[in-house]
Write a sequence for this structure.
C-alpha cells in the first residue's frame, strides 16, 4: 500500500473473495448473482485484491458473543460473513493510507446491530472496519455515508451517541434533494475518513426508483473531492443493497469511476 503523494489519487482497487458467492441461507432476492454482477463489471477496469477473514475478536468489536455464535451455527454462512467483514477491514486499512477502495462484499451489513441482525445482514461490515481504526487510535472522526434505499439501523444503533462517527443515512425520495443531502453530509463536519455504505437499490430500475446511474458517479466524485481536500484522500466504499442485477454492475462501476482518479 502506498501513501498518496503530490495530490495524485492512486488508482482505485476492488476487494473481492469467492466466498462472497456462497449460496448460504438468506432471502431469495439476496443471491450470489448480485456480487457476481458487480465483480464482472469492475474487474474489467480495476485491480482486484483478495482479503482474509475477520477474526472473532474483530467481530466482537461490534457484536455480542450470542450473535457471533448464532452466525457460526452455519459454517458456510459464517465463512462468507467473516470474509465480508475482512474485506471491509482491508478497505479501511487501504483507505487510511490514501488508497481508494470499493469492497464488493456479500453478505451486506448495515442492518446488523450489536445483538441482532436482519435484512439479509449478519455482521456489520462497515461498523467493524471503522471501530477497528478507532480502537487502534488511527482516526478520531469518521463519516458513514449510507446511500442505500433502506435506513442503516444497525450502523446507527452501534454508533449512536458516539462522537467518533457520524452516520448519515440519506433517506430522500426526490433525486435532487438526495444529492443535496449527500453534499450536506460531506460539508457539515471535518472527518478523518469517509466510508460509503454503498447500496444501489434506490436506482430508477431497482426498488427505490429514484437515482440515475450518473448520480452514483456524482456521489463518488463528490466523496473523492471532499476526501482529497479535507482528509488526505481517505475514503472507501462497502457494498450493501442493490437487487436488479441487470443494472447493479453498471451502477457500482459508476460509483467507482467517480471515486477514482481517471473518472
Amino acid at each position: 500500500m502506498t501513501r498518496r503523494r503530490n495530490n495524485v489519487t492512486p488508482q482505485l482497487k476492488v476487494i473481492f473473495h469467492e466466498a462472497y458467492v456462497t449460496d448460504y441461507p438468506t432471502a431469495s432476492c439476496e443471491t450470489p448473482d448480485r456480487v457476481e454482477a458487480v465483480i464482472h463489471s469492475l474487474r474489467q477496469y480495476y485491480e482486484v485484491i483478495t482479503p482474509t477473514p475477520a477474526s472473532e475478536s474483530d467481530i466482537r468489536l461490534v457484536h455480542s458473543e450470542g450473535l457471533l455464535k448464532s452466525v457460526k451455527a452455519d459454517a458456510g454462512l459464517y465463512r462468507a460473513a467473516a470474509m465480508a467483514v475482512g474485506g471491509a477491514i482491508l478497505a479501511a486499512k487501504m483507505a487510511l493510507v490514501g488508497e481508494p477502495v470499493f469492497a464488493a462484499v456479500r453478505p451486506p451489513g448495515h442492518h446488523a446491530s450489536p445483538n441482532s441482525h436482519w435484512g439479509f445482514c449478519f455482521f456489520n461490515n462497515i461498523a467493524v472496519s471503522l471501530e477497528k481504526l478507532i480502537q487502534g487510535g488511527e482516526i478520531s472522526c469518521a463519516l458513514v455515508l449510507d446511500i442505500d434505499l433502506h435506513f442503516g439501523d444497525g450502523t446507527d444503533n452501534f454508533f449512536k451517541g458516539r462522537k467518533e462517527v457520524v452516520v448519515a443515512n440519506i433517506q430522500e425520495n426526490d433525486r435532487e434533494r438526495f444529492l443535496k443531502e449527500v453534499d450536506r453530509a460531506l460539508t457539515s463536519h471535518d472527518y478523518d475518513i469517509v466510508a460509503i455504505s454503498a447500496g444501489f437499490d434506490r436506482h430508477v430500475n431497482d426498488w427505490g426508483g429514484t437515482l440515475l446511474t450518473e448520480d452514483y458517479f456524482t456521489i463518488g466524485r463528490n466523496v473523492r473531492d471532499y476526501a482529497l481536500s479535507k482528509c488526505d484522500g481517505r475514503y472507501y466504499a462497502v457494498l450493501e443493497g442493490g437487487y436488479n442485477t441487470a443494472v447493479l454492475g453498471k451502477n457500482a462501476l459508476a460509483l467507482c469511476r467517480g471515486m477514482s482518479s481517471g473518472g
Observations:
- Residues 1-6 have pLDDT under 50 and may be disordered.
- Strands lie at 13-15, 47-49, 101-103, 142-146, 165-169, 193-198, 235-239.
- The radius of gyration is 16 Å.
